[in-house]
Amino acid sequence: MLTIGEFSKICRVSPKTLRYYEAIGLLQPRLVNPMTGYRFYAADQLETMRLINHLKAYSFTLEEIKLLVVTLSGKPEDLTAALTEKKQELRRQAEQLTQQLQQLDRDIQNLHDGHSLFANGDEIPVQLTEVADSELLSWRLMVQEQAFPQAYKQCFGTLLEKLQAGSLTMSWAPMVLFHDAQFSDEGLDTEFAVPVAETTPETRLFQPGLCLKTVVSGIQADFAAVYARLIHTAQVQGYHSSGPLFEVYLSDPQDHPETLITEVYYPVTKNKMKRGENNGFPENEGFE
């Protein structure tokens, strides 16, 4: 048997950390002296500690490690599945870091050339268009910003299963509606939706009507600038919001993020004009 000091020295983990692992049920001492409270570990627990350290190096959380090591007893098939999923997660993170590095290069070059770090949005084309009514098969929930990719995958996966089970016909591309009037620490009030041709007890009528619209390319596009441009255009041209802003995905961001095409819509209605006023912009034409 090894004392907690000896065990910690071999594993290069502090006694404080070992006591914490004991408290959360991750790694229990093989023996605790009831008189002195001294803790002892068996030699075979060194292998368990090595596995814990190994998984931590791959950024597994302690909760995930406990599931694999304690609940599932470190079975090879479970470890293989977990490591494969972690590999995919790290690959996605690597792609995001690559995109961030590329954006950093562009920002540095823009500053070096004397340009502003942010575009003012004037170059974003905005069109006024009428969007037809449709039935939506949807799932609405609160989503934290960092959890959006997982929620996108889960919600649209479930909706597509319902689509197939009910033999429903998709009438437009998948979309996401943002119902929040302002940011909340609880997340975004988000509705994932698939427009369908049929009306069922599970669908709802969606009537966006008149909208300001723009098209965005790529997953790293500055959506904040896009939203600001739409809202600013509405204010300047005498419109106000009449419904939740929504995005329509013409391609799947999970497949090829770099080629993602997104249509962004801002439902609006015209402010009441005083006699003799004219907005000067007919519908279905672009705003400069």
Automatic annotation (TrEMBL):
Residues 1-71 form the HTH merR-type domain. Keywords: Coiled coil, DNA-binding, Repressor, Transcription, Transcription regulation. It comes from Holdemania massiliensis. Residues 80-114 form a coiled coil. GO terms for molecular function: DNA binding; DNA-binding transcription factor activity. Signal peptide: none annotated. This is MerR family transcriptional regulator. InterPro entries: AraC_E-bd, DNA-bd_dom_put_sf, GyrI-like, MerR-type_HTH_dom, MerR_fam, Reg_factor_effector_dom_sf.
